[in-house]
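Hi R.,

Here's the chain you asked about this morning:
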Amino acid sequence: MNILVTGGAGYIGSHAVRQLREAGHTVVVLDSLVTGHREAVPYDVPFYQYDLAQTDSIAELLVKYQIEGVMHFAALIQVGESVIRPLMYYANNTAGAVSLLTAMRKAGVKNFVFSSTAATYGEPDETPIYETTSQKPINPYGRSKWFVEQVLCDEAHADPSFAFTIFRYFNVAGATADGTIGEAHDEETHLIPNILFAAMGKKDKISVFGTDYPTPDGTCIRDYVHVDDLVNAHLLAMTALAAGESRVYNLGSGSGYSVREMLDAAAIVTQREIPTEYVERREGDAAVLLANSDKVKRELGWNPQCTDMTEIIETAWRWHTSHPNGYAR
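And here is the predicted structure, written out as tokens:
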């Protein structure tokens, strides 16, 4: 298939580009480079530095390359920033997706895979979390993605030939096994990179927020999925979309690791002491967030390969130690 990958210069998008090409698909990348890195995209892949608001230019691109499906990863992802700058998140994540979908309608492209988030569930009433769990997002980031989910349902209702797959991500982690592409954010908010930065001396210490949660060791438990496993689900979904059926899936491992367990695993991998401070809880942090991903396994045949936390951290460590400044060597 001919696939457009938006956000293809970002963390997850760059891994999608690699897997799509390895699977024999033809790939075109669109990225504004606001948070992405041109170096993450092979230079023989057609690349366009467009903003999502450039509806007509995107429509022309879709026609030029005879695009058959779109994988949409382009989004702003920092929860805290979304609270401070909500309009920016609604403009990019929500209005940007509407612009992209408008371009697809103009160009007659009918298959869409959307990168959503477990943040659409807010503070869920149950764990593990199912796709049927009530969605009550509690911040602009989560709402910006939830709004797009509603838009997709409405577009599919209006045009029965349009089909989508929504993936609600839990905690995405790791890097390619060869350490050539990985996670590189200007302001890193994810736990694993920050733990590794502390091990490398790039950070003074890692802060653990709360030690009195109702969990075995008192720290929060989260669900982590390796980035290559997560991307593999997108390839399976794009193939399944040819049947014209829209679906919604959680993407997580179903296994939970506490913050203390993550620190212990990172210490084993790095063979270094992880400077750590224990501080008060953060408002809004749930004790346990776990995905039930049985549906995607059953319907798409998804079978994650990298499920051991030590192995996941090893891939991230290989990336960060070989690229201590990210793509800026």
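One quick note: Residues 2-173+224-251 form a domain with the Rossmann fold fold (CATH 3.40.50.720).

Cheers,
M.
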